[in-house]
Amino acid sequence: MFKVVLHGVRSNEPMLLAVQKGNAARSAFLNYSHSGRCDVGGRRFFSVTCSLFGRGPPSRKEKKTVDIPGLERVTYADRMHFVPGLAKPIFPEWQRDWHDPHHYRGPNNEEMKLHKENPCYVFNQRTKILEGVRQALWLTKSKLIQGLPEHILSLADDPANQIEDQDERVQQAIRHSRFWDTTALRPKRDRFCPVLLRDLLHLCGTLQVKHTSLSKRILAENYRVAALWNRESDVFQVRGLNGMLLNSMTPLPAVAQSGEVLATENHTLETFYPISPTIDLQCTYVYDQKNDTGFRDGYPYPHTHTLFFTETEDSAAKFKPEQLRAKMIMFAFGNALARAKALHGEHPQVLEHPVVVQSIATDGRLFQFIVLQLNTTDLGPDTGVKNLVWMDQDQLLYDYAKCRPLIKKKIVTVPAGLSGYQPETFKKFLALHLHGAV
Prior knowledge:
Elements: E1 4-6, E2 9-11, H1 16-34, H2 48-53, E3 115-123, H3 133-140, E4 142-146, H4 150-157, H5 166-180, H6 189-205, E5 217-220, E6 224-231, E7 234-241, E8 244-248, H7 258-262, E9 282-286, E10 303-310, H8 321-344, E11 350-362, E12 366-376, E13 387-396, E14 400-402, E15 406-408, E16 411-414, E17 417-419, H9 423-434
Helix pairs in contact: 3-8, 4-9, 5-6
């Protein structure tokens, strides 16, 4: 048995002093290395001194080969092994005579068929633009109107358009998504958020008995949209996956009449100089100049009705509310522009029949509502007719949904179960769903 003498006293506890020194050395090394002053190159050191003051091997510096015209380098290529004093040979790159997918090297950007001289700035499903809604309004040449249109909100106020026991059934849908669908005490957003959205859509679908046109709609997932346009001297494109889409056989009616549309010529778009409008957008020289709704010709539900976005727990795909509203505007605009160009061609023009697209986003508790009306495809200059965007933001459906009560200082601050239900938020959800069917 190994024994340690501590201050002249023999100790019967084995390895006591060694353990104490080891713990002290370990904590000292961690504190020193985390402070950013120690670079040990990821190596293991078995003594305190080396761990604090040791250095890894220096990084190798590639030697530059100097080619002198008229002189031939003497290499060890013929001997097929390293020889001191002789230069390292440079062999030509070996080309396979067969296609190997595991060792495939793609061509350079300049060699690709879709390579263009002018760059394209792409907005995809994970783009988080710095200026949020202001930047989205400039990119889409749109005018913002706070609040949803009154004639749309009035659809849900009519008792004939309401669901039987509406508030109670909505609360049951919330409880189903938060409490009954899973046994977890705190279910993740990517679990309860889609469940809540589908339950609310199912409740709205129960009105098909009163309004048969609601049955002429269909939900689509994992579809890809592509819309290309010119803004001033730059090329922009919206493309990629974008949530769940509610399609309809008939288009949505125009929200603003021709007089209000023509009045947008006097509106001045807000700028955010010195920040560039292309900030946070993906810049690429390889792109396809196409406009695609994501569906084939002859699809029986060609018209976009409402886009639905749900927030997930993925940190890379998590948006702040301002960035989420900008994403809603951009993808609603992309769907409307792709549909307008499919109907009226690629030539920029003021649309005689505007294209209307709605968008709803939620994180399972907070709702965002947007209605976009595409009035023109002439998006190059800042002058002329503008598009219109109605937005209602940060609408709470409920305050809390707790499996266990929240207790502070022996006082129940938040009771268990559902609390703080806001019926007005679901009325807006129902009004947008009934738009175009009533």
